[in-house]
Amino acid sequence: MGARSGDVTYDGRALIINGTRRLLFSGSIHYPRSPPKKWPYLIAKAKEGGLDYKFRGRLNLVRFIKQVQARGLYVSLRIGPFIESEWKYGGLPFWLHDVPGIVFRSDNEAFKAGACLQTHTISSSINLAIPCQINKGVTEGLFASQGGPIIITQNENEYENVEAAFGGRGPSYVRWAASMAVGLRTGVPWMMCKQSDAPDPVINTCNGMNCGKTFLGPNSPKKPALWTENWTQRFQVYGEDPRPRSAEDIAFAVALFIGKKNGSFVSAGYGERTAEPVQYLNRSQQWEASTEESNIISKASFVAKGLLEQMSTTKDVTDYLWCTTSYNQRSQQDGQITLHVDSLARVLHVLVNGELLGTVHGKNGGEPPVFDKPILLKEGQNNISLLSVMVGLPDSGEKSFAGIQHVRIQGTGNLSRDLTYELWRSVISRSHIMHQPVVSYPKKPLIWYKTRFDAPQGTDPVALNLTNMGKGEVWINGESIGRYWASFKAPSGKPSQSLYHVPRSFLKPSNNLLLLFEEMGGDPRSITVDAISVARVCGHACLGKEKCSIPVSASRFRGVPCPGITKPLLVVAECS
């Protein structure tokens, strides 16, 4: 049943659209993770998959919703303003961090003003519904009450998980958020996920893998039971293997239909995908390189007594912050010297007098990185440079601390010196001009590489194969396609991700610029440009027949690779 104008209400059984109770199968698309030219394809695939059907560039919410409507689908708009979604800062703009006296997601006037502004902006852009984000939805007539496809909207996200930490300001914030949302009078219901005390008339809903077992139900007999996220798997992080679920488990709704994986573009897969290299970037003359320098003095550098908190310094401009100081070694009589560094970033590179001494990193949910190793110092002044690396911002918590915490020199006897509060020069690392052709490829980290390549012919999806690289980020014609960390192996011994999607809308027919920053010594000559094809044994084999059989033989599969191993076969039946 397609989307059309009408009234949306609800009772204890379901959402009621145009006077009819509806059982809806839903899925979510993180639309800013894909370029606008790909949205029609993603929406079409979402509908084929069984769904019941900044405002510029990738963030053009109005355009996205209108394309959904053009496909005859409804929209469940989970507006936030806090969305989490493993998105940096949970979708909140970083400038809120610097507002004096602000406490995120609480009954705090500074935060409520910012939350209201963000919600109203979306609203005025599509003329939606929160005095701050809703005007946008209302102006464009996108709510069902105006003839649009939006049938329900969500305020906040899984707040009950952290509500107790705010004391009395938690419950009062929930009441304020609900009142603000309902007061926008969008003409469609509002919901809060994982919020058992959602005030009437806001519907409390469930997120999770097994809501049929874990959800206690709506907090009023007048509200329907809604499942806003049925996770296809736990979101994958670097150093982990994927943990997919069976099709039976996710036959209710899909979160995410198009989603996230380590910060790169990811789309749903249909059939068996094959990555075929179509271009090798293995010639030395193809690449230019530039070493990342720690001693650059620029407008992006600061000198302070003590180490700076990283996120407050970089302000979401970059993952990288250089911290450099000097240490005077009086003589070699101090014996063996050990450098100890505690960090609350994700990765730490340690250099002394320009030479890399080591790299340490943490693990998602585990201990932060600690460097504690003997170092060799020369007599006189020595430069100690630390490159502190984040992997994006955390998805919640404005009070989170990131960066280097403590630095200490320890020698034999009584020699011990705390360098934490010495003079440090901090440099925000952005980008550098490539100037030097690569002659040899030592496994040296902290190098910028660039090359150019032509787009593969045809229409198959394109990906970069980064299996043998270390860690860093890649840009194609100025567009980031994501961070990679191929050297952080999962328990299977493979990278968590090795193929990185390059949207064809990013590509020109020829002379495409590939720029990457390699932190951990990967060899760019190992990179290939791959075309991704979906293998099909046959198609439309049983059209017009009530019964049919499909012979399966080795010839249909072009031989028998890996004989003696049982192989799966996917059969899709469509009945018209």
TrEMBL record:
Transmembrane regions = none
Q: Where in the cell is it found?
A: Secreted, Extracellular space, Apoplast
Question: Which catalysed reactions does the entry list for this protein?
Answer: Hydrolysis of terminal non-reducing beta-D-galactose residues in beta-D-galactosides
The residue ranges of the Glycoside hydrolase 35 catalytic domain are 15-261
One Pfam family assigned to this protein is BetaGal_gal-bd
Q: What is its EC number?
A: 3.2.1.23
Q: What class of enzyme is it?
A: hydrolase
Please name the Gene3D superfamilies in this protein's record.
Answer: Galactose-binding domain-like (2.60.120.260), Glycosidases (3.20.20.80)
Q: Which GO biological process entries does UniProt record here?
A: carbohydrate metabolic process
Keywords, sorted A to Z: Apoplast, Glycoprotein, Glycosidase, Hydrolase, Secreted, Signal
Q: Which InterPro entries match?
A: BetaGal_gal-bd, Galactose-bd-like_sf, GH, Gly_Hdrlase_35_cat, Glyco_hydro_35_CS, Glycoside_Hdrlase_35
User: Where primarily located?
Assistant: secreted
GO terms of molecular function: beta-galactosidase activity
* A GO cellular-component term linked to this record: apoplast
Highest taxon in the source lineage: Eukaryota
Entry annotated with the keyword Hydrolase: yes
Residue ranges of every copy of the Beta-galactosidase galactose-binding domain listed in the record: 446-512
What family, per the record? Belongs to the glycosyl hydrolase 35 family.
Q: What is this protein called?
A: beta-galactosidase
Taxonomic source organism: Ensete ventricosum
